[in-house]
Specification:
mainly beta, 8-stranded antiparallel barrel, 1 helix
Length: 184
Amino acid sequence: MLMFCAAIAAHAQKDSTETEKEKKFNPNNLVFGGNIGASFGDFTFVRISPQVGYMFNRYFTAGAGVNFIYSSQKYYSGTGQEVYSYNYGYGGLNIFARAFPVRFIMVGVQPELNYNWGKVNYKDSRIPDETLQGEFVPSLLLSGGLMIPSGGRGGMMISVDYDVIQHSRSPYGPNAFVNIGFVF
């Protein structure tokens, strides 16, 4: 009987130690990556957003990152003449949470706060260019998509994102957009 009690106590201590280890920070659960985006033409958009996160388990990852975004757009008259264009720069911070309810399927949320500055360039030389006053622009991106593994914990994420706040100077515009992200 004494041996039986000792075995149960030892097993309980082992389970307790394993549970404590699981609760501690594990540097092997750190993930690095981010988002890269670009489009060129009458609407130009370039985005680089490196991120670092922590994989709590195979279902949930959260972290933070920085944003660097440039966008410009040309506006035309009814006759096809360019009337003006704007150029915006953004720099800011984001936090993110991603859930993987089913392997390879991702849903996420990413609040951001970006500082925005810019300029409006008028093609009519009689109208002076306008420097826009800088301001903080909030965004809240909701996303859903696929995680395509590339071995280990890394992979490529392809998602459809939408900014639900719709601030007038949001870098993401009024429509949903395709986003490509990477995790290493």
